[in-house]
Amino acid sequence: MPTTQTEATTDMFAPPVNRAMKVLDRSFFSRTIPTSAARIFNPKDIARCRKELTASRDTLPSTRIDPIRADPDPEKAQKGNKCLLLRPEVAHGDRTTWSAKLRDLEQDGTLGVIAYQLQLDYDYFSYSEITSATIPPPETKHDDEIPQGFALAGHVAHLNLRERYWPYKHLIAAVLADKNPMVKTVINKLDNVGTENAFRTFQYEVLHGPDDMNVELREQGCTFKFDFAKVYWNTRLHTEHERLCNMFREGEAVCDIMAGVGPFAIPSGKKKCFVWANDLNPEGHKSLVDNIRINKVGDFVQSFNVDGRNFIRQASGDLLKSEHSVAIYPKTKYSRSKPEENKKPEPLKTLVQPRIFSHYVMNLPASAITFLPSFIGLYSNVPDMPADEIRKLLAPHTEQKLPMIHTHCFSTKSDDNVAETKEICGEISRQLGYEITPETPEVTIYDVRDVAPKKRMFCASFRLPEEVAFRKVNNIS
Fold it and tell me: Biased-composition ranges for Basic and acidic residues (predicted)?
């Protein structure tokens, strides 16, 4: 006896098909499926019958349908009688389709096998099933598949529909919202992020729900609030946000050059890193400031709103001369009834902000690599601070090493990324005027994610070479 539904059974539980539907008609998906059920005469036998008939593979093999139903006879249902749905191959009028166990239970008077009209409606069917039943399938193998994925930012679902799906866009959006309780608004992107707007925002159309782009979401234990229409956010980068943040250690200084609303900066501040976070977009900076306050990381995260190339030099020079420390106190319960007895505890420790950044993050994959020339001579032309004095702050004089640079970028796709790794290292070398190869110590070209059929996002991490950091240059603005 088969353990899964046959192809015929699968078709039986498929939704009705209507390729002409452009506006969602939920009532169209109501259907009645004639099947069979085991009428349990004594409610006390329901659990036993379910267990035994499941073991004999007589019950309906569907995790989406509750097999225990009220008896179709109103009088029996009123008395609490239940039925157990059977797989479609079991015919109530043909005992040859019954298993030995089902026949035994029927013969000893535990149950009876009856006809049952199973009612299914729109709520039963999934997003994939509804869209497949209404949208024509691809005509060739080269056509785009019916859209299944979407990005979610708070209550906003973000689609990027191909032109052939535009006639069905409102239907797709309505079904998506119905099948995902968190979704209130569905939008469709109209242009390419990063090419139409320097702030990586995009034009969009609302396909479903209110035009409310003020979202709130959680990531890495932090709360982020922002206007999704005015700032850059990509939910698909949550793994990358976490991966980099896991590299940062308590007490280190991190320079986030294109910080956005703070997906790297805020979690790093939570783990007590000293973060200097910058974003050129005024709206992004405003949200960054709000998120610093919301997450109570103001002791560790400072915000800036300047050009990234200038910020690299400005922040590095200012950190050398900056003095900042944070006392870390134990968690203490305070008495409201006897406030006079409350005493401020002694700090567990005091974290002193370093004078050298341990990490620079440049999450602007379309152009971040072109910011690398700002690191040339980073420590050779600091006003009022000779390079030899800065060298004494670094290994081998101290445990502080030159910083790691993490720059995101785009490249092509291949099975092994060998060619892409060489190409990215070559471009870094050209920008720095210093050879960086895949074999250079502490160089990692990390495959972040696919962004298009022939395009992939990478994160290139490498330690800033001493020759680059202390190279003597003229006319630095």
Answer: 66-78
CB 278 within 8 A of CB 259: yes
What DSSP character marks residue 340?
Answer: G
β pairing state of 359-362 and 253-256 = parallel
Q: What is the pLDDT of residue 145?
A: 67
Average pLDDT value for residue range 438-453:
94
DSSP letter for 341, please.
Answer: G
Cα–chain-centroid distance for residue 365? Answer: 18
How far apart, in whole angstroms, are the C-alpha atoms of residue 341 and residue 339? 5
Is residue 72's pLDDT more than 50? yes
Tell me how long the chain is.
Answer: 477
Q: Which residues contact 3 (CB under 8 A, 6 or more apart)?
A: 57, 61
Q: Residue 255's pLDDT band (boundaries 50, 70, 90)? A: very high
Q: What is the 3-state secondary structure (H, E, C) of 290-327?
A: HHHHHCCCCCCEEEECCCHHHHHHHHHHHHHHCCCEEE
Buried b (16+ CB within 10 A) or exposed e, 227-252: bbbbbbbbbebeebbeebbeebeebb
Round the average pLDDT of the chain to a whole number and report it. 91
- Output b/e per residue, 306-331; b: 16+ Cβ within 10 A: eebeebbbbbbbebbeeeeebeeeee
Q: Which two tokens stand for residue 312?
A: 């690299």
Which residues, listed in sequence order, are joined to residue 218 by a DSSP beta bridge?
223
Structure tokens at 296: 């109570």
Q: What number is the average pLDDT over the span 176-204?
A: 80
Q: Tokens 């119905």 belong to which residue?
A: 178
Identify the H or E element spanning 249: none
Q: Is the pLDDT assigned to residue 461 strictly greater than 80?
A: yes
Summarised one tens digit per residue, pLDDT across range 331-381 is 877 767 767 666 778 888 999 999 999 999 999 999 999 999 999 999 998
Over residues 68-83, mean pLDDT: 92
Is 363 annotated in a binding site? The answer is yes
310 is annotated as contributing to ligand binding: no
Is residue 279 part of an annotated ligand binding site? yes
- CA proximity to 372, closest of 454, 427, 301: 427
415 is in an annotated binding site: no
Q: Over 70: is that where the pLDDT of 475 sits?
A: no
Q: Which position has the token pair 């096998």?
A: 113
CA distance 20 to 102: 44
User: 308: annotated binding-site residue?
Assistant: yes
Domains of the chain: 31-120 (3.30.70), 127-216 (3.30.300.110), 236-469 (3.40.50.150)
